[in-house]
Design goal:
Blueprint (H helix, E strand, L loop, with lengths): L7 E3 L4 E2 H9 L5 H8 L9 H11 L4
Antiparallel strand pairs: 1-2
Helix pairs in contact: 1-3
The structure holds FE2/S2 (inorganic) cluster.
The site of FE2/S2 (inorganic) cluster has 11 residues, from loops.
């Protein structure tokens, strides 16, 4: 599965996977901040699982 596409991950805010991955790559590695920056997770909450999954798979090495 390619996670780095322009698929919309959060339909409520129109946030794409790529936007979220870019933020994670920049070190924005928690859901609260991603939500504040992109607007994701501020609607129905249905994207939470996907966002968490993206975060897990792209979290920078400690
Ligand atoms: S899909 Fe993200 S808040 Fe609804």
């Amino acid at each position: 599965m390619n996670n780095e596409t322009n698929d919309i991950i959060c339909g409520c805010s129109g946030t794409t996977r790529l936007e979220v991955v870019k933020l994670i790559d920049q070190g924005v590695a928690d859901l609260d901040r991603i939500s504040r920056i992109t607007g994701a997770l501020s609607g129905c909450g249905g994207c939470e699982f996907e966002l968490e999954h993206l975060l897990e798979s792209h979290r920078p090495e400690p």
